[in-house]
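Retro notes (design track)

What went well: tokenization of the new backbones is finally stable.
What didn't: we kept losing track of which sequence belonged to which structure.
Fix going forward: every design gets posted as structure first, then sequence, in one message. First example under the new rule, 70 residues:
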């Protein structure tokens, strides 16, 4: 999983340094969250329900907060 984390981290750096780039990743592994640092996370557990977490737009990148997609 070290290779996956390194690739995820490099993808995040590449996407963050460019404008008008959107990267969508789907995985069953939550160990990539730290490396990817997603701005939006959609969590779909088995069964009903869905959880949407969004990184605050202000300079605070401390973590994701609950919130619906626009």
């Amino acid at each position: 999983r070290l290779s996956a984390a390194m690739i995820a981290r490099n993808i995040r750096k590449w996407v963050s340094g460019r404008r008008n780039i959107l990267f969508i990743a789907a995985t069953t592994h939550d160990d990539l969250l730290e490396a990817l640092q997603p701005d939006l996370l959609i969590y779909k557990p088995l069964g009903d329900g869905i959880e949407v977490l969004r990184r605050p737009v202000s300079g605070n990148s401390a973590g994701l907060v609950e919130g619906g997609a626009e």
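Added context from the reviewer: Residues 18 and 44 are 29 Å apart (CA to CA).
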